[in-house]
Amino acid sequence: MLMAETGSAFAEEGGLYQWVKYAYGRLPAGIASVLYWITNPLWLGGSLCFIAFDAFSGYIFEIKGGSAGEWIFKLAFIWIAIYLAIINLKLGKKFIGAGAIAKVIVISSLVITTAIYGIKNGFQPFDFDGLTPTLGGFIAIAPVILFSYVGFEAPNAASGEMFDAKKDTAPAIRRGSFIATLAYILPVLAIILIVPSDQVEGLTGFLGAIKEVYTVYGGAADFLVGLTALLFIFGLISLGSAWMMATDRIQAIAAADGSFFNGWFGEFSAKFGTPVRVNLLSGAMSSAFLVAAMTLVNGDAASIFTVVLVCAISTLLVSYIIIIPSVMKLNRTRRDVNRPYEVPGGVRGFQVIGSILFFYICIGSIGVVFPGTLESVFGLEYDFQEIWGMARADVQLFTAGTMLVVILISIAGYMGGKKLRAELANSK
C-alpha cells in the first residue's frame, strides 16, 4: 500500500531512485539504487541459474555436474534472461507475461494435484500447535520472508513506458502483491494439509513436492513432472528477466542523473529503448558470480563465497532502510502532490504502516548483515560453524565487509558523477 500510494503520486521513471532523491538528495538515492540493483545480477548468476539447472538435470534430462553441459546451460540461462531485458520493453513484457502464466500453471497444478492426492490418500489433520513460530525461528526466517515480499514498487522503474503512470502504477502494485501472496500461501497450505508430515520432511524443494503428489497420475507422472519442470524453468527465466528490466532501468536513471559515475551507463538504446549498457554490466556480473560459484566449491574459499553471496543477494532488503523513511517523508511533506491512490487512514495510516514495516526491515537487515546478533541478544543458540562452516568473527567480517564494499561502490559512483551533475545544474 505504501508503494502503491507513492508510485501513483511520484510516477517519474526511475521509481525508488526518484523518491529517495526527492526526500534526501542524490547521494542517499544513489546508495539505495545500487543496493537495490546489485542484488539481481548476483542472484541470477549465483543462485537462480543453479535452481534451473537442478530442475532440468533432475527432472528432464540428466547433465553431469561440472561438465561442459552444465556450464553451457547456466550461461545460456543468464544471457537469455539478459536478452529478454535488452529487447524492446513491449516485446520483453510479452515473454514476462508468458512466464507469469507458466508460474500460475505450475502452482495451480500443484494445488489441484495435492487436492486429488488428499482425496485418494486422505487429508491430514491441521496441527496449529506445530505451526506456532518460536522466537529463534522467527529471527532466522525474517530475512527470507521480507525478501519474498519486497519489490512490488518495481513497475515504477518503467513508468515512462506506461500510458498513464499515475493511474496504472497503483493497480499494478496491488495486483502483484496479492498474486505473490497467493503464490506463496496456496502451495504451502496444500502440502501441509494433504501430504503426511513424515513425507513433507523428506521433500527436496518445490519440484520434489510435485514429484511426490504427481504419483496420483500413475504412468503419466514422469511425463507430467518433466513438463511441469520445463514450465518451472521458463518461469525462473522470466522472473530473472523481469527483475533485470526493473532494476537495470533504475540504475540507468541514477547514472543519467549523475549518481552513478559519468552518465555512460545512463544511455538508453535508440533501437530498443532499454538501458543496454547496464543490462550488459548485469550480465557480466552474473557470469562472473557463476564462475566463482562453480569454481569455489571446497574448503575455506567455498565457505567465504557462500557468506558473500548470501549477503550480496540480500542488499535489496537492506535498501529499504533508506527507501521506507523516504516514502514516509514524502507522505508527510509533499501533500501538495495529487495521489490517485491513498493508504487507508491517510497520513496517520501511512506513517503507522511505514513504522511497522521499517521495524521488520531492520530486524531482517540485522539478520543478514550481522547474523547471530539477535540470537545472542535473546540468549538463543546460533552455531556459526554448523551453519556457515566458519567462526563468528569471520562470518560477520565478510557479511559486514560485503555490505561495506557495495556501499563504497555506490559512493564512488556518486563521486564519479560530479561533472555530470554540474552539467545538469547548468542546463536548467
From TrEMBL:
GO cellular component: plasma membrane
Transmembrane segments: 34-59, 71-89, 101-119, 131-152, 173-195, 215-239, 278-297, 303-328, 349-370, 395-415
Pfam families per record: AA_permease_2 (PF13520)
GO molecular function, one term: transmembrane transporter activity
InterPro entries: AA/rel_permease1, APC_superfamily
Claim: Nucleotide-binding is one of the keywords in the record: no
Locations listed in the record: Cell membrane
Signal peptide stretch: none
Membrane topology: Multi-pass membrane protein
Assigned keywords, A-Z: Cell membrane, Membrane, Transmembrane, Transmembrane helix, Transport
Protein name as catalogued: Unannotated protein
UniProt source species: freshwater metagenome
